[in-house]
Specification:
Elements: H1 9-17, H2 23-36, E1 43-46, H3 48-64, E2 74-78, H4 105-112, E3 116-121, H5 157-164, E4 170-174, H6 181-187, E5 190-193, E6 214-218, H7 221-231, E7 261-265, H8 275-290, E8 294-298, H9 306-321, H10 339-350, H11 353-366, H12 371-392, E9 398-402, H13 414-418, H14 420-425, H15 431-436, E10 440-447, E11 453-460, H16 465-479
Helix pairs in contact: 2-3, 5-6, 9-11, 9-12
Bound molecules: glutamine.
Glutamine is lined by residues 127-130, 155, 175-179, 207, 314, 427.
Length: 484
């Protein structure tokens, strides 16, 4: 079979279980694909030998009938998840040679379910960015690029690009303000940011701890359900991990959505919203109506404060989390005459421009005198944003909005790079979800006139991923998006 790497996870599992293909054969196909697709710069570390070892173990389990839920499925791991004995860098120079002694809970869960890891995927440095251009290892190239090299989105750009170019069957991502959903939208794949607390953050390098959440990026909705089944669950190693049952997400796919109330927030349709995206949104609404869903208009009045609120809270937490990279305990060191100089030299050389900017902003908003004016105020606004969603969910079961106000843009795009604010504005539809701790899934809705993928997102109530899966699966069927 020549196109094994084009199979979805569920299709691969079917063939593996029927013994039509073997895990080793499947892994070899991905290793080949990896070689052919180096130009996308999706992986920063590959471990093909390790992957083949894992595939051989998986093969034994299939032979003995002891195979596990994801046995033999080849995955890529965002390089923000600590993987035992495999270099983990957060795509930062400051820890570019860090080899963890332990495995993150999420990746351990996947390994326990029989997954094969092919390597570590590129991302924006410490997941700070929306285009994967802040990575120490250089930008990821969007596989949908034609003449001009386009960004894959960020921060999980490597994950989305690898899935879309068939360099792994599925990938892990993390989402602090949109980093699973936005790159998924840019690369024409599907990704879900689960409810805060659904997946353990243990062993995930911290960006903004009250917002960070791990989730899968896959070819379709079913694969996301399968991967999330494995990734999610209570973990006593993470104090914010939730003690709630993980339902079998796959069991909700195909369920009837007649009478399901879908909320449409008018604040997400500002004047000047890209017309193509607005049209696709309308189309998605029509498709859901045809399936029997009921459309309700809702209001999320504090939406306009979400971006400033996020860009106070996220840097505040980042500045605190990144204090640990001091040249003593972790990663690289650049010596100096005394301790202070050592810190300054290490951090000046180890962090990139965007990370430094966030540390400066974060330290500023947390400093005495400004704390009340910025940080505390942002926390109050965060509560109002959460309240908006609580009110809205009294009227609807799930919310439908575009994922991003734009399509993938050129690497090095002048406008995006001339001011950080221009880049931050792209997160307008994603950050509220993280501030409120809610789950949201992005799926492809179609192509723009430039032939680039656009995404729609379903936002759900806390721990109600099942309704998101139900609704997304139906929309996906209507859209019938053609992957690469
Ligand atoms: N683009 C957002 C930021 O730069 C979100 C990043 C993320 O979700 N990790 O902060």
């Amino acid at each position: 079979m020549s196109n094994l790497t084009e199979l979805t996870i569920s299709e691969s599992l079917e063939k593996l279980r029927a013994k039509e293909i073997s895990p080793v054969e499947l892994t070899e196909a991905y290793i080949k694909k990896l070689e052919d697709n180096k130009k996308y710069n999706a992986y920063v570390t590959t471990v093909p030998e390790k992957a083949l070892e894992q595939a051989k173990e998986s093969e034994k389990r299939y032979m003995s009938g002891a195979n596990k839920p994801l046995d033999g499925i080849v995955l890529g791991i965002k390089d923000l998840f600590c993987t035992k004995d495999i270099r983990t860098t957060a795509c930062s120079k400051i820890i570019d040679n860090f080899v963890p002694q332990y495995e993150s809970t999420v990746t351990q869960n996947l390994l326990d379910d029989g997954a094969v890891f092919l390597g570590k995927l590129n991302l924006d440095e410490f997941a700070m960015g929306g285009s994967n251009e802040t990575s120490y290892f250089g930008p990821v190239v969007n596989p949908w690029s034609k003449d001009v090299k386009l960004v894959a989105g960020g921060s999980s750009g490597g994950s989305a690009a690898a899935v879309s170019a068939n360099m792994c069957a599925g990938a892990t991502g993390t989402d602090t303000g949109g980093s699973i959903r936005q790159p998924s939208a840019f690369c024409g794949v599907t990704g879900i940011k689960p409810t805060y607390g659904r997946c353990s953050r243990y062993g995930v390098i911290a960006f903004a701890s009250s917002l960070d959440q791990a989730g899968p990026i896959c070819k379709d909705v079913r694969d996301c359900a399968l991967m999330l089944n494995s990734m999610a669950g209570f973990d006593e190693k993470d104090a914010t991990s939730a003690r709630v049952d993980v339902p079998n997400f796959e069991s909700f796919l195909g369920q009837d959505i007649r009478g399901l109330k879908i909320g449409i927030p008018n604040e997400y349709r500002p004047d000047g919203l890209n017309e193509e995206i607005a049209n696709y949104w309308d189309k998605a609404i029509e498709m859901m109506k045809e399936k029997g869903a009921e459309i309700v208009n809702i209001s999320l009045p504090h939406t306009k404060y979400a971006l400033p609120c996020y860009y106070v809270i996220a840097p505040a937490e980042a500045s605190s989390n990144l204090a640990r990279y001091d040249g003593i305990r972790f990663g690289n060191r650049v010596n100096g005459k005394n301790m202070e100089e050592l810190h300054i030299n290490t951090r000046s050389s180890g962090f990139g421009k965007e990370v430094k900017r966030r540390i400066l902003v974060g330290t500023y908003v947390l400093s005495a005198g400004f704390y009340d004016a910025y940080y505390l105020k942002a926390q109050k606004v965060r509560r109002l944003i959460k309240n908006d969603f609580d009110e809205a969910f009294k009227k609807c079961d799930v919310i439908l909005t575009p994922t991003s106000p734009i399509e993938a843009f050129a690497i090095g795009d002048k406008k995006m790079n001339e001011s950080p604010i221009n880049m931050y504005l792209n997160d307008v539809f994603t950050v509220s979800v993280n501030l409120a701790g809610l789950p949201a899934l992005s799926l492809p809705i179609g192509l723009s006139k430039n032939g680039l993928p656009l995404g729609m997102q379903f936002i759900g109530k806390a721990f109600d991923e099942k309704t998101i899966f139900k609704a997304s699966y139906q929309l996906e069927k209507s859209v019938n998006f053609k992957r690469i």
